[in-house]
Design goal:
Elements: H1 8-46, E1 51-52, H2 53-56, E2 66-73, E3 79-86, E4 89-100, E5 106-115, E6 132-139, E7 159-161, H3 166-173, E8 177-184, H4 202-244
Parallel strand pairs: 1-2, 3-7, 5-8
Antiparallel strand pairs: 2-4, 2-6, 3-4, 4-5, 6-8
Helix pairs in contact: 1-4
C-alpha cells in the first residue's frame, strides 16, 4: 500500500497486542457467561426444597443444594480460612467437621465469618457442645484458583489455611467424608453467613471485556493513523526533493 507506511516496530507491536487483547476480551465474555449461568443455577437451587442428608451422597450434582443436618461439630479439628473480608474488615471463616448422626457421614461445615482484628491473638470462637439440627448448602467453587501455600498437614489445631480441601482433611483424619464444603445458614452456632456466591459477578467480566475490545480498537486506530501520517510525510518530502531537482 503506497499510501500506508506504519513502520516495522509499530506493525510488530500491533500484530502481537491486538490479537492478545481481542482474545482476552472474548475470554472475559466467556467467564461472564459462566458466572451468569452459575448464579442462575444458584438462585434456582437455593429456593428448592432442602435435601435430607441421606440423599446428599447420591446426588450427581449437589452444587448449591440445601441440606438438613442433624449431628455434632468436632471442636478439636477447626480450620480458619484466612484473608476473608466483610465491610472492609479483616477476618477468617470458621470450618469444622460435622458428624451427621443419621448417616454417619462427615461433612466440613463453614460456620461463617468472624473478625480477626489483632493477628497477635487467635480469633475467638466457641462450638456447640450438644448435637444440633441445622441447614446448610453445598458450596462448589466456580473455578480452581492457583495459590502458593504450604501443605497444612500436621500443623496444630485450630489450623490457619488459605484454601479448603475437604478430601485432604478426611484422608488426614482417616474419616469417610463428603467431598465439598457446606456453608451453614443462620442457625445454632452460626456466625456471619452472608457469603457472595462469586467474588466477581458476571457484569464485571462483561465490563472488562468491553475495556479489552476498546483498547484493541484504539491501538489499531492509532496504528492506522500513524501509517497514513507517515505516508503523508514521506510523500511531502519526496515532493520537495523533486522540486529541488
Amino acid at each position: 500500500m503506497k499510501g500506508f507506511r506504519p513502520g516495522l516496530v509499530p506493525s510488530l507491536v500491533v500484530a502481537v497486542l491486538v490479537p492478545v487483547m481481542v482474545c482476552l476480551g472474548f475470554w472475559q465474555l466467556s467467564r461472564g457467561e459462566q458466572k451468569r449461568v452459575l448464579m442462575d443455577n444458584y438462585a434456582e437451587r437455593r429456593v428448592a426444597p432442602p435435601l435430607d442428608s441421606s440423599e446428599l451422597s447420591h446426588t450427581a450434582d449437589p452444587a448449591f443444594r440445601r441440606v438438613t443436618l442433624q449431628g455434632q461439630f468436632d471442636a478439636e479439628h477447626s480450620l480458619l480460612l484466612d484473608n476473608r473480608q466483610h465491610d472492609g474488615k479483616v477476618g477468617v471463616e470458621l470450618l469444622q467437621p460435622f458428624l451427621d448422626h443419621r448417616t454417619g457421614l462427615w461433612l466440613l461445615v463453614n460456620r461463617g465469618w468472624l473478625p480477626w482484628p489483632d493477628r497477635r491473638t487467635p480469633p475467638a470462637f466457641d462450638t456447640p457442645a450438644q448435637p444440633v439440627s441445622l441447614e446448610a448448602w453445598v458450596y462448589v467453587a466456580p473455578g480452581a484458583t492457583f495459590q502458593l501455600h504450604a501443605d497444612p498437614s500436621g500443623a496444630p489445631w485450630p489450623r490457619l489455611v488459605t484454601a479448603v480441601a475437604p478430601d485432604k482433611l478426611w484422608a488426614e483424619l482417616g474419616r469417610d467424608g463428603f467431598a465439598y464444603e457446606l456453608r451453614q445458614q443462620s442457625g445454632p452456632g452460626a456466625y456471619r453467613t452472608d457469603w457472595p456466591v462469586v467474588a466477581m459477578g458476571p457484569e464485571k467480566h462483561f465490563g472488562y471485556a468491553v475495556q479489552w475490545f476498546a483498547m484493541a480498537a484504539a491501538l489499531f486506530g492509532l496504528f492506522l493513523y500513524l501509517g497514513w501520517h507517515n505516508a503523508g510525510r514521506h510523500h511531502g518530502k519526496h515532493h520537495e526533493s523533486n522540486q529541488h531537482v
